């Protein structure tokens, strides 16, 4: 799948989910592109998980190795990730996590300001200290593919 094809598919799913949750669709697409390597990651291909969402609740699960940043060092750990039936189901779950998770209250307050929303998401979504910067850069690239 090309970057353009990924963005087209992801934008449809993000808009459908955003219509219910109010989350910024383009940031959702950018985050999915960043987390899944444009839909090419093993997790996205095998589990329709485009955000690295860990298994929770009654979700079907898939165990995989993942890189984490701990005390400034990259480590590899095994983790259980949620398995989804479709891209849309995954995007809806991601939006619900941000919409209802206590740690994302700052992100909810920042809806309408993509840079601030990204900064708030980055505080809790990933262990990479450069996550906000990477997500902001990805957002610009994604916007360029939509226009």
Describe the protein in words.
With 147 residues, the protein is an alpha+beta fold. It has a single domain, classed as Lysozyme (Orthogonal Bundle). The protein is 57% helix and 15% strand. It is built from seven helices and two strands, in the order αααββαααα. The chain has a two-stranded antiparallel ribbon. α1 crosses α2 and α6 packs across α7. It is globular, with a radius of gyration of 14 Å. The model has no long low-confidence stretch (mean pLDDT 92).
List keywords for this structure.
147 residues, alpha+beta, Lysozyme, two-stranded antiparallel ribbon, 2 strands, 57% helix
Give a short synopsis of this structure.
With 147 residues, this protein is of the alpha+beta class.
In the CATH scheme, the class would be Mainly Alpha
Q: How is the biggest beta sheet arranged? A: 2 strands, antiparallel
Structural class: alpha+beta
Q: What quaternary form is this?
A: single chain
Count of DSSP-assigned helices: 7
Rg over C-alpha atoms, rounded to the nearest angstrom: 14 Å
Whole-number average pLDDT?
92
Strand order of the largest sheet: 1-2
CATH architecture tag: Orthogonal Bundle
- β-strand amount: 5-15%
Helix content percent band = 55-70%
How does the overall form come out from the CA principal axes?
globular
Task: Give the N-terminus to C-terminus distance in angstroms.
Answer: 19 Å
Which spans have pLDDT < 50 for at least 5 consecutive residues? none
What's the number of structural domains? 1
User: What is the number of strand segments?
Assistant: 2
Q: Provide the CATH topology.
A: Lysozyme
H-E order: HHHEEHHHH
């Amino acid at each position: 799948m090309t970057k353009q094809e990924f963005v087209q598919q992801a934008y449809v799913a993000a808009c459908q989910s955003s219509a219910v949750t109010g989350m910024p669709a383009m940031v959702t697409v950018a985050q999915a592109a960043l987390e899944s390597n444009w839909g090419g990651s093993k997790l996205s291909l095998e589990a329709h998980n485009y955000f690295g969402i860990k298994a929770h609740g009654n979700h079907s699960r898939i165990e995989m190795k993942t890189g984490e940043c701990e005390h400034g060092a990259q480590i590899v750990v095994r983790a259980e990730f949620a398995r989804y039936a479709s891209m849309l189901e995954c995007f809806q779950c991601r939006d619900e996590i941000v919409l209802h998770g206590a740690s994302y209250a700052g992100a909810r307050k920042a809806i309408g300001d993509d840079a601030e929303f990204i900064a708030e998401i980055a505080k809790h979504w990933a262990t990479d200290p450069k996550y906000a910067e990477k997500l902001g850069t990805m957002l610009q690239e994604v916007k360029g593919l939509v226009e």
